Amino acid sequence: DAGITQSPRHKVTETGTPVTLRCHQTENHRYMYWYRQDPGHGLRLIHYSYGVKDTDKGEVSDGYSVSRSKTEDFLLTLESATSSQTSVYFCAIGKGDGGTGELFFGEGSRLTVL
Amino acid sequence: AQSVTQLDSQVPVFEEAPVELRCNYSSSVSVYLFWYVQYPNQGLQLLLKYLSGSTLVKGINGFEAEFNKSQTSFHLRKPSVHISDTAEYFCAVSGTGGFKTIFGAGTRLFVKA
Known about the structure:
In chain A, the strands form two sheets. In chain A, strands 2, 4, 5, 6, 9, 10 and 11 form a seven-stranded mixed β-sheet that branches.
């Protein structure tokens, strides 16, 4: 257990509203990631962070922004949610210094955009 | 850039039969390879990993995988499956230097009694 907590675990919102998902870790890992999981696509990387205020885009970053003001928290924001962003979102941390790509995952946040 | 192809979207198998879940990857650099398992309504957990050394790696729950560099494959095997192995399995790859891990689309394993 790498001490990862995602909140909220479930959220239903309407198209056009902003949404923020939070990932909190307790073990001071440098690398943190946001993935989305959709049937037939596996997990796709949205954004990742390699330190406080250091972030970069993944495969499917359009429509998403992230922030990391503290080592332990990595926030994913949908500025104006769309139905195509209905998905399960997973936060992950990179084990050790992140150099192998081995990941520990949170339990996921299920987002429904109506 | 790396990519991962899981060749089977669903694999039905009878209990106590052997199973192989296939994974091919492409990469222009040396890689680290992983298999993750996801049980219903849960997050992903690491099943096994190849970082270096022996190309045959053993993981939890009796699973093993073999890294084949010439065929760019990392197939997952288990000699005798149980009902409790029913889950979705994901193959993943990261380049040396890590930092970004790319996942395949997943294979759903159904174990039937």
